[in-house]
Amino acid sequence: MSGVNKVILVGHLGRDPDVRLLENGAKVATFSLATSETFTRDGKKVEQTEWHNIVLWRGLADIAERFLAKGKLVYLEGKLRTRSWEDKDGNKRYQTEVIADNFTMLGRKSDNGSSDTIDHQEEYSSSVVDGSSSISSFKDDPEMGLPF
Questions:
Q1: What gap in Å lies between CA 84 and CA 94, rounded to an integer?
Q2: Rounded to whole angstroms, how far apart are CA atoms 75 and 105?
Q3: What number of CA atoms fall less than 13 Å from residue 36's CA on the CB side?
């Protein structure tokens, strides 16, 4: 039996996406996402924020580049991946990232560039429909690692 590696997050972008075009022509976008939870400790409300490293590939990177910005609220799904490398001093370093396979922009339309104030959602996925892809549906290569 195989395991399950599934991540679901709702949070705000901590910075604008950093979008790069790799030598093989693939586009990758990375950004930090803050999730917060509130709980009571000793009768006082405490908010704890967790920061997540997010990676989007190809079509999703294109969409992130066009529509996402610091502070935007998003719902995203993906899987955890940990990569390792040696730093300049020869020490082994590790970083755990969420490789997103779809995301939904949440919030009011005014938050997403429109003057309307009704609730608004735009969903983007990395799945392929009928073997073709469009701006909102692309197939990502989950085996491709980041080159850094």
A1: 4
A2: 6
A3: 10
Query: Among all chains, which residue has been given the structure tokens 């490293």?
Result: 53
In the chain, which stretches have pLDDT less than 70? Answer: 108-148
- Burial (0-12, 13-18, 19+ Cβ within 10 Å), 132: exposed
Domain annotation for the chain: domains and CATH numbers: 7-125 (2.40.50.140)
Structure pTM? 0.73
Alpha carbon separation from 113 to 29, 80, 120, 122, 137 (Å, rounded): 20, 31, 11, 12, 22
| Per-residue pLDDT, 74 | 96
**Torsions phi, psi for 15 (to 5 deg):** -160, 165
Phi (first) and psi of residue 47, to 5 degrees? -110, 130
Cα separation, 135 vs 113, in Å, equals 18
Q: What element of type H or E holds 74?
A: strand 73-86
